[in-house]
Amino acid sequence: MDRKIGVFVCHCGINIASTVDVNTLVNYAKTLDGVVVSKDYKYMCSDVGATLIKDAIKKHKLDGVVIACCSPRMHEHTFRGVVEAGGINAFNLEIANVREQCSWAHEDKTRATEKAKALVRGAVAKAKLLESLETSKIDVNPDALVIGGGIAGIQSALDLAEEGHKVYLVEQRPTIGGRMAQLDKTFPTLDCSGCILTPKMMEVANHPNIELLTYAEVTGIEGSIGNYTVTVNKKARYVDMDKCTGCGDCVEACRLKGRITSEFDEGMGKRSAIYLSFPQAVPLKCTIDKDHCLMLTRGKCGTGPLCVDACEAGAIDFKQKDKAVELNVGAIVVTTGYDIMDPSTLHEYGYARSNDVITTMQMERLINSSGPTGGEIVRPSTGEKPKSITYVLCVGSRDETACAWCCRIGCMSALKQVYLLKEKCGDDVEINVCYTDIRSFGKGYEEFYRKIRGMNTNFFRGRPSEVRNAGVHLTIDIFDTITNKLFEISTDLVVLVPALIPRTNADELARTLRVSTSADGFFLEAHPKLRPMDTFTGGIFIAGCCQGPKDIQDSVAQASGAAARAATILSKKELEAEPMVSFVEEELCSGCSSCIAVCAYNAIDLVKREDGKSHAKVNEALCMGCGACVGSCPSGAMQQKGFKDKQLIPMVDETISS
Amino acid sequence: MMKKYALYPGCVMSTEQYAYELSLRAVLPKLDIELVGLNGFSCCGEPLKSVNQMLTLALSARNLAIAEKEKLDVFAPCPVCHLAFSECKKIVDSDPAMNEKVNAFLKDEELHYMGTAEVVTTLDLLHDIVGVETITKLVKKPLKEMKVATHYGCHLIRPTEIGRVDDAENPQKMETILKAIGAEPMDYPEKLDCCGGLLTANHPESALTKTGQKLQKVQEQNFDAFIDICPWCHRQYDSKQKKAGETVAAKLEVPVLYLTQLLGLSFGIPKDKLGLDLNLSPVNKLAMVGEG
Known about the structure:
A: alpha/beta, Rossmann fold, FAD/NAD(P)-binding domain, 5 domains, five-stranded parallel sheet, globular, B: alpha/beta, Glutathione S-transferase Yfyf (Class Pi), Chain A, domain 2, 8 strands
């Protein structure tokens, strides 16, 4: 018996209707073979639209439904529910994408309507051949992995742990704390950064549900939502974590003490080859820098390594090796943060030419009382107090030749530092701020900005054309667009506010995790408005600056959000699996294994038959329905449910026939 | 192997900056570059850009079409002309509608712009095409202990989007060439400052102030010579040096040479062949000019 198909065309307000003639499309659909009903509605995804579809299924005893609307990415899930509620199997639904792939892409209404007709024609052809599919259940591992131990990762880990999930927190540096640990105070409330961060770090360290893996990196991932197997490489610290008490005697004893540039101090201070990043590090365990330690680089350290002599606990172990561990988790939260753009690529700002041109993060370390200068503000070139400090905002940010985006923290972090400098140095120091716009958008930010404007500070609206060395001083040429005048500022210390950029290894991690990145290189959210913490990969969530620049309050909020999103998976015992997986027509399969080679999910095995021949077999629990195996199969033995050749080929034929 | 270029002389070099042309004609043959003169060239169009952009494009395309007809690439020693041609290529080569429009202008003269000719100027010809290795081999009199300041001029390096010869903020190709011939190019804070030349028509005083200020700084920093590569800039720094000094109330005595003149000296070319007697700045202060 011929299957009865209903076609439902959505106007999507004017999104579709302004470019596609909906009336013509509805009437055209009625003429297609098998179509017994064709209707349109302003918003098919609304309750009224859904009722319209449900009623039509019942009234006309439909076997299949075609909805001409937006991308299946938006509403396929919604409409499957509607079709099911109408009384037929949810998978007897075909979506003709006449928005993203038609109305939004074209301007000519006549031709767009013709294209929409072709898309509907093809969809109807496929709908006539669809089969009912059943979803299966997969068990969910309730444990979670959080990658990145900055404030966002800390928040996500604590939230998930509090909900009762076991959480693995992986951090690539020797300590958690991230960028926030480097800051002196936070805007706009001027909370001491360490004072509000370290209790949270301690909480992580002491939480029975959290297992901390510091100085470790995610190197591989297998499986899918609900059941991920993650490989983590724990880098050798050359210090026995169980024995080390964090006393720091080895740090003092090290032969290279004060000789190695400190990453934590952004190059403003020096450390030893064995080090603790900062006094409140968690875990409070020393780490040997294998790129500098004399024992590890040359195999010899004077008459013998002084750290070994100094360590009463006997924790130093030069024989330690990297160690790979495997973690099984149901969901992953990625909170890997950001890097700071290297301003030396922008030659005009003089970062490469003068030691007295520094970044905001370097200034943060100077301001910090536990920083390399004990909180003294000095010019790196002379060690003297500067009489004039000039801030340059938007260095590389909002610049089409470098980073097009706004860093979202630059204005406020500079204003905060102006306040702290005024507090420290009073009006002895002249402060200039060169800005593009002051973006004080958050709660309490504008009030903070007004307070700073009321202080004795010079604001210039414009971007300096150049920062140049002028004898013992620096000069800055800037055209102030408020007064329409060109100024030459003579100053002692220039503080650049550089753009925030994706981590240098963000691309690599994205490939490992199989998540997408946006054009700027930050991890891409599944929907900017409605799924801001989800990725397109099920069970993997993102929070904090790895998704895009943001301040601490937004990072923490997003981190809690991502934890809650992960918990929606982890709290279930089992999940419904997509039924659109691949399967093998065994009698056609020659066992050539080309499908196994292309499968990214290790979902296909080769099995031996009784007659001695082999054929491929799909593990439906692992198959993600990507279809790569189907495309690679030379004999057509590999097929995908819902996308079989015998469903797709008639669809293609109909679409291109006219 | 000899590489041939159609020489597009431009207006400044061919009407007053003869030293530039003389030095090019003396140096380039040694680097296996042959210059071919063509009839019919007009203004490059750049000076008209603020008045009529379409005319600028049409004029540039017209000149390029003349060279294309002879199947020659174009060598425009003046960076201003080079900018006009580069911009023309960038726009017309990528926009079929503009291509049609431009060619409609050329039809009467039976010219057709196709976009086949490459356009080079002195700096990329020396640095990218000839290369420092070849230049180094030709050096007979290395410029020992000569501390030189470079001046690129704006048209040579800006705007980046059009595709210019060197980095806009940190150009280094002149330095690389100068090091190859034994000189000591030194960075100085005013390196990228404007010569003032384009202000001459409307603000002559401001123009000379810019020129004078930069030369004053160069003099203060004890450079032996100031090296430029653009006829507009050279007019300011060399031809008008005395006037520029009067404008900023300073006695300026900075030897200013075209890069090609200095190159010629290092190759052992006699100074009269390089047009050095046409320089109005005190080039005789340089030992190798004074002696020879």
